[in-house]
Amino acid sequence: MGKTNQLATSQLLSGSEILVQSLVNHGVEILFAYPGGASMPLHQALTRFTDQIRTILPRHEQGGGFAAQGYARSTGKPGVCMATSGPGATNLVTAIADARLDSVPLIAISGQVKLPVIGSDAFQETPIVEVCRAITKHHYLLTDVNDVARVVREAFHIASTGRPGPVLIDIPKDVQEEMCIPDWDQPLDLPGYQLDSLQAPQEQLEQVAAAIKQSKRPIIYCGGGIIAANASQQLKQLADKTGIPVTMTLMGLGAFSSQEKLCLDMLGMHGAVYANHAIRDCDLLLAFGVRFDDRVTGKLELFARDAKIVHIDIDASELNKNKPAHIPIVSDIKYAMEKLLPMVEAVEGIEAWQQQCLDWKEQSPFSYDKDFDGILQQHAIAELSRLTRERETFITVGVGQHQMWAAQFYKLDKPRSWLSSSGLGTMGFGLPAAMGVQAAHPDALVVDIDGDGSLQMNIQELATCFCEKLPVKILLLNNQHLGMVVQWEDRFMEGNRAHTYLGPIDDPEATGKGKQAFVGQRYPDFTQIAKGYGCGAASVSRKQDLTAAIEEMISYDGPYVLDVNVPYQEHVLPMIPSGMSVDDMILE
Ligand SMILES: Cc1ncc(C[n+]2csc(CCOP(=O)(O)OP(=O)(O)O)c2C)c(N)n1
Ligand SMILES: [Mg+2]
Fold first, then answer.
1. Cα torsion at 157, 162, 164, 166 (round to 10°)?
2. Which residues are catalytic?
3. Which of 150, 374, 399, 434 has its CA 20 to 30 Å from the CA of residue 94?
C-alpha cells in the first residue's frame, strides 16, 4: 500500500478515485493526461491528489504517450499516460505500438463511453481494446468498479515484469463514476502469466562457459534487454573478465561504455565497420537481450555465418525466431550473467582477436569531412557530445539520418541515457520523449537531437515544455528534407525526388532541380515558431559559430531550439543495404 493514504481504506470511493489511488500506491509521481468527456471523472479525481501525483497536460495524446515512454525509458519504472475515448484513445495507438516493439513498460489509460452504449457507435466511441489487441502486452476493458484496484495492480505487474511492455486499461465513464469500497488486497488473477522459469538452468550455462572457453574469436552482441534488466554492470564484469569485445544494437547503446577499449559500438545497417567485421569473422556469438532485428542482421544466413550462437533472452518467443541458436536459453539476462561470471576466465589466446578488432576500429572509425565549409550533422553532434561530456545528459532523437548520426557520434557511457524509437522508428518521438525525461530528471540536461521532419510531428509539445517548465533543449539538424528517404532515393532510385522536400512545392528543390545550395531559404522558420511558444531560439549556419551557439543553448534557462542549417546531400555511412550482408557494405 502507498505511503500517504489520503482516502481511508474502508471508505466508499468512485472508480476514478480508486484508479488514481492505485497509481499512487504504485509509486506513480507523474502522468501525462489529456482530458475529454469520457475521462473527466478521472481528471477530477487527479485534482484531489495533486500533492502526490503531478499531472502534465501534453498538447497531443501521442506526445503524452511518448513523454510517458521518456519517463519509463530513463527511469526503468512504468510510464503512465491517459486519454479520453475515441480520438483521444486512438491518438495513443502509435505510442503503444512503439512501446511494444521496444519493450517499454507503459500503462495507457483510456476513458470509454458508458457500458450500456458500448457497441452502438456512441459519440467518441472506438473499440480501443480491439484496436490495440495486437500491440499491447495485455489489455483490459473494465466493466465492474470492484475490479479497478486489482486490474491496476495486474497492469503494473505485467508491464514491468518479464519482458516489459505496454498495458492498456480502458475504463467506461460509468465505471469511473460508480462507487464501491475497494479491496486493495484482492489477489492477482493471472493464471496464464508465469514468471518462475526465467532463470537459466545451470547445465545450459555450463555449455555457454564451455563454448566461451573453446572460442578463439568470441563477441558479445547485446541490446535493450541488458538495459531493461539493469545488467550493465554484469556485462562489464563479464567483458573485463573474459576479454570479449562488445557490440550493441541501437536499443543497447549506453549498456557498455563507449570509452571501453573493446567497445565496438553499434552494429547493423548503419553500424560501425569494425563491429560488422567482427560479427562476420567471429566464431562465437553471444547474443544477450537481442532479437536479431533485420536492421541488425541484414541477410540472416550470412549474419555471423561461421559462429556458434548462444542466445539468451527473457522472452522464449524470441529464441530461434529469426536465426537458430546452438544454445538457446530463456533467462533474465542479469541472472544468467551473474551465474556465468564465476564459471568463466580470460579466454585463452584471445589477444590476437582483440588486436584484430582494435585494428579494424583504428582503420575504419566513423568519419566525416572535417574540412566541410559549413556545419555537417556529424560535426554538430560530435561537438554537442564534447561539450556535454562532463555533465549528466540524456539524449533523445527523432527518426532519420540525424538519429543514426547521433547513434554514431554521440559518445554514450551510461544505460538509460539514450532514448530512440528503434523498433517502430516513429518520427516525432524525440521532443515528447525528452519532455518525459526532463520531468523525471529535473536537474539533468536533456537534449533532443531532432530532424526538421520529425520535430514537426510533435512540435506542439514546445507548449508543454514551456508551460510545465521543462527546459528541454532541441538540437535541430535542419536539412529541409526527409533526409533518410532522400538518401534512399539517391542510392536506389536515381535521386528521383518523391515528396521528400519540406518547403513549398514550387521550389525547384522539391523536384530535385534546385541549385543544391545547402544554406538557403528554410521553411518553416523554426526560431519564430519556438519563440511563439515562449521558448528560446537561435539559428546557426557557420561552422565557426557552432560551439558558442550550443553553449548558449545549454546555458539557457528554459526550453530552447537551436536550428542548425545542414546540407541534405550528406549520407549516413557506412550502410549495408536492406536484406544484404557485410560484404555489400557501402563506405562512400
Ligand atoms: C511517423 C513516420 N512516418 C514516416 C516515416 C518514414 N521516415 C523515416 S526517416 C524519414 C525522414 C525523416 O526526416 P527528418 O526528421 O527531417 O530527419 P533526417 O533524415 O532529415 O535527418 C521518414 C519520412 C517514419 N519513420 N515515421
Ligand atoms: Mg530532415
1. -50
2. 61, 123-124, 173, 484
3. 150
568 C-alpha vs ligand 2 centroid, how far in Å? 7
Half-sphere exposure of 170 (CA within 13 A, CB side): 27
**Is 380 exposed, middle or buried, given 0-12, 13-18 or 19+ CB atoms closer than 10 A?**
buried
Q: Average model confidence (pLDDT) for the chain?
A: 96
CA 402 to ligand 1: nearest atom: 21
Q: Please answer whether residues 113 and 444 qualify as being in contact, where contact means their C-beta atoms are separated by less than 8 angstroms.
A: no
Ligand of minimum distance to the alpha carbon of 399:
1
- Element holding 68 (H helix, E strand): helix 61-75
Q: Does the pLDDT value for residue 4 go beyond 70?
A: no
DSSP letters spanning 23-60:
HHHTT--EEEE---GGGHHHHHHHHTTTTT-EEE--SS
Cα(263)–Cα(258) distance, integer angstroms: 6
Cis bond before residue 524 (omega within 30° of 0): yes
* Unique residue bearing C-alpha cell 554484469: 234
Query: Lowest mean pLDDT: which of 93-107, 183-197, 540-554?
Result: 183-197
Region 69-81: what's the mean pLDDT?
98
Ligand 1 shell residues, CB under 6 Å? 398-402, 425-427, 451-454, 477, 479, 481-485
Residues 337-347, mean pLDDT to the nearest whole number = 98
The answer on pLDDT for 65 being more than 50 is yes
Copy the grid coordinates of residue 284: 562465437
Closest CA to 22 of 114, 137, 109: 109
Mutate to test the pocket of ligand 1, among 399, 422, 522, 571 (most ligand atoms within 8 A of CB): 399
Pocket test for ligand 1, best of 250, 459, 484 (most atoms within 8 A of CB): 484
Q: What is the pTM of this model?
A: 0.97
Angle among Cα 510, 513, 515 to the nearest 5 degrees reads 105
Phi, psi at 219, each rounded to 5°:
-145, 145
Average pLDDT over residues 314-334: 97
CA separation for the pair 56, 212 (Å, rounded): 49
Which residue has its alpha carbon closest to ligand 1 atom 4? 427
CB-CB contact of 137 with 159 (8 Å): yes
Find the ligand nearest to 405 CA.
1
Number of neighbouring beta carbons within 10 Å of residue 227: 27
- Whether residue 337 contacts residue 225, with contact meaning beta carbons closer than 8 Å, is answered with no
DSSP state of 135: G
Q: Sheet of 138-141: strands edge to edge?
A: 54-56, 30-33, 79-83, 106-112, 166-172, 138-141
Residue 3 confidence (pLDDT): 43
pLDDT digits (tens, 9 = 90+) for 406-463: 999 999 999 999 999 999 999 999 999 999 999 999 999 999 999 999 999 999 999 9
